[in-house]
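Reading a protein record of the kind used here takes only a little practice. An example makes this concrete, so a full record is given next.
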Amino acid sequence: MLGAPLAFIINGVSYIISAVMEMFVEIPQFSQETRKNKTVLKNFAEGFRYIRQAKFIKAIFFTFSVMTFFTAPMIIYLKQMTIKSKLVCKFLSYH
């Protein structure tokens, strides 16, 4: 009975906690000389080189790519499967 309302409350509380935590994040300032020397493409290429070198990040990237490839079709057809199976959620007014 508390499924959706409890989920919304937990989501709201976690959002507030993350907003408070963001107040303590310090972002370092870069000098103008550093910014002028790098273009967007150079930054992009540097990011890809870093991902290729870091095995852990490469593994995470590969895992999420595979998961997205297999779960995206299920998410797309979830509404149609729900309608065909005639499931009704009266709490969310979805028929």
About this structure: Helices lie at 3-22, 32-37, 40-53, 55-76, 78-84. The chain has a mean pLDDT of 82. The longest helix spans residues 55-76. Residues 16 and 90 are 29 Å apart (CA to CA).
